[in-house]
Amino acid sequence: MKKILIFISFVVSIYIIGLVSINSHSVQDRILNIGIKNILFSAKPFLDKEDTLKVIICGSRSPLPSPGRAESCVLVEAGDDIYIFDMGNGSVNNLTQYQLPWPNVKAVLITHMHSDHIADLPDAHLQSWIQGRTAPLKVYGPEGINLVTKGFELAYSPDYQYRNEHHGDDMLPMSIAGFNAIQIIDDQLIPNDTPGLEILPFVVDHQPVNSSFGFKVSYKGRTVVISGDTIHDGSVQKYSKDVDLLVHSAISIDIVERMRKLAPIPQMDKILLDIQDYHTSIKEAGEIARDANVKHLLIYHSIPTPRNNVMERVFFRPLGGIFDEYTLSDDGTRIIMPIGSNEIIIDQIN
Q1: CA atoms within 13 A on the CB side of 345
Q2: Residue 219 — φ and ψ, nearest 5°?
Q3: Over the chain, what is the mean pLDDT?
Q4: Which residue spans traverse the membrane (predicted)?
Q5: Which of 151, 162, 216, 289 has the most CB atoms in a 10 Å sphere around its CB?
Q6: Considering only CA atoms, which of 221, 229, 170, 178 is closest in space to residue 203?
Q7: 142 assigned to some structural domain
């Protein structure tokens, strides 16, 4: 009994000392400085020492809400050069937390001009400007991409001016403010200066969107296809033949129909019905991967994004017996494909 009382007295003493200490300015300052250091320097170096083709999901959800996830964004790193496919809402916040080196970003490529694929272009502009971009931000996109970028430039023109006046030309020169919009041509390689890299756009069907693309990226023998948003019309399967990785959007008709039955307003019921006719179902995504002899299928822009293990099991239930090598992406899912190897490494940026 005496030992127990001594132990309790010790715990209480430690608690009181801690309570008093936390009110000390010097203790608060030390704790805060440690916290700031962790915030600024906790991320591991972004670029690999080895030569790889790397894919990072910087936005994994569709417009349907999903806590903790950004809208569509796929980063591809070939060697030390970076290309970003789509910039959905919240994606640049993720990239900032990953401590992306913006000077290594060679271009942004937009699959199509739905809002959940372009919303963070202004933030990408700002972050790359701050980090020393040397020219207007290069953005490839479908017909009309120049209207999108000009609209952003018009809307943000006061912001450009305020930041330039505040920080000066040496920091944020107006000569490189804005975008360099370039229209994508079907089946015509995207020009780039990365040795060994090919980026090939191909048309997909996302009607009534009149211009929508997927992309095949090849780098020194490793390959990835990014579907964008599309129905299964054969295009993705054609370009995915024998690729290492297929990054495909997918919808669960089963779960969406369950949501329709519980929709609290008629507008939601209407939207949940309409979205079913211009997306690839999860079963079709599996069939594409199987028939194209894809090594691994990575699902992003999932509709709806599973929020727990049970929902994930139901979402992927249609893949049973069709295709087994699949992963549901989260924000920060990273796939590393070393050059000169068939290895596919899947991990997570914390």
Answers
A1: 11
A2: -145, 110
A3: 93
A4: none
A5: 289
A6: 229
A7: yes
In a 3-state reduction of DSSP, which class is residue 163? helix
| Cβ 205 vs Cβ 231: under 8 Å | yes
- Parallel, antiparallel or unpaired: strands 345-348 and 333-338: antiparallel
Cβ contact 156:125 at 8 Å: yes
* The total number of structural domains that make up the chain: 1
Tokens of 264: 């609290």
Given a cut of 70, whether residue 16 has pLDDT beyond it is: no
Please identify which residue in the block is written with the tokens 């370039």.
Answer: 182
Report how far Cα 34 is from the mean position of its chain's Cα atoms: 30
Q: Indicate the pairing of strand 333-338 with strand 52-59.
A: antiparallel
Give me the domain span that covers residue 178: 54-348
- Please state the pTM of the whole predicted model: 0.91
CATH number of residue 132's parent domain: 3.60.15.10
Alpha carbon 71 to its chain centroid, in Å, reads 7
3 lies in a domain? Answer: no
For the chain, the C-alpha Rg in angstroms (whole number) is 24
pLDDT tens per residue, range 112-170: 999 999 999 999 999 999 999 999 999 999 999 999 999 999 999 999 999 999 999 99
> What are phi and psi for residue 230, nearest 5 degrees?
-165, 160
Q: Which helix (H) or strand (E) holds 215?
A: strand 213-219
